[in-house]
């Protein structure tokens, strides 16, 4: 395991035998912890709440579907080999994937406060428009626009968080960030069920109110985000007096000491796209892709599967059948994130999550008792969703250089969109009510993740050994070389 760096969260006052950093004399350990906790409250909570509404807006199609949208817009009609519903869900990811790389460049240029608050408010307006669609083609078109806008959100948040925290602080922060999204998934069914009760109000169906009210809520949060969000560390002391200049320098020194890439670099297209030559970036992307195949399949189809396969009625599927598994996933997610940071490991966490899924999927799909199948839903939901922040921390620990990190964030989340397309298609209407082919596809995704993690771990182990012998310098393509850097596995 990686033991070359001091954990700056557990003991922020300690340091290896190097020249004394400025923050040791500027702030006491207690003051340092207070600064970091202030950042947690302001940054992690704000982007987490925004991601909460983002995930709710992205995945409320299943709730609207069983609330009457499928019948009113005739989404059950086949379109080629898939249903119109599947088309409307997957077109979102076409624009979502294409628009990922420019987003991480744009957020660095104009700043996260303007960028993130604008895209959030804009997609809220699109959500409101979805509540007034009259045709499935209009719905699909708005989903494409939604993909353009949301493409700028998730990779920007991943990148922004990575610039504020050291490598062994970031795991639990990513977990909290994504855990708030799971909270949204847990509550979205309950909210959707409540909004369904507005059926007939102003002559609109209940499914339309799901889009309209959630869209209004998104717009409000997007506007408020302009004042709540913070900028990158090098500009943080200018963001509504969030940090003093001395406190901002403490953060920059702290991150720079950990991985040597805290200082902003001028944009260079060659440097940005040259990161694509690093094979491990694509390994992270594939792990993320197979993980999101599971998470999106659950988000889009779990209420439908619970209704058709397990016999729950609509209200139960929306509320009790969806909320508990996501609440359980939140507990597993934070626990594994905390353990990963404490013991400085990443790949064992991913393996554990995939094993949970491999146990849960057969139970969920093949046991004769509906209650036990529902227990399988808990395991799959926890393992799949916990693997998202685990993979984010895995790549954040093993990439150096501002623009390489930006490229990696964009690639990671872009492949997450590919997983979204797969997740939109794995559970086909013609496979109802058992959906066995979809379950087999999810099992294959888990097995592929285990294979990739195993290969990457061997690569990291071998590279670390060579670096220990002085034969190579890891991540030497970063602008400021850091001889002590080692991969975390």
Overall geometric form: globular
Tell me the domain tally.
1
- Strand percentage lies at under 5%
How many beta-strand elements? 2
Tell me about the largest β-sheet. Answer: 2 strands, antiparallel
CATH third-level topology: Growth Hormone, Chain: A
**What is the structural class?**
mainly alpha
Q: Going across the biggest sheet, name each strand in turn.
A: 1-2
Q: Compute the number of helices.
A: 19
Distance between the amino and carboxyl termini: 6 Å
Whole-number mean pLDDT: 82
CATH superfamily: MFS general substrate transporter like domains
Q: Approximately how much helix is present in the residues?
A: over 70%
Give the CATH architecture.
Answer: Up-down Bundle
Please give the CATH class.
Answer: Mainly Alpha
**Unreliable residue runs:** 1-21
Topology as a string of helices (H) and strands (E): HHHEEHHHHHHHHHHHHHHHH
- Rg on CA atoms, Å: 22 Å
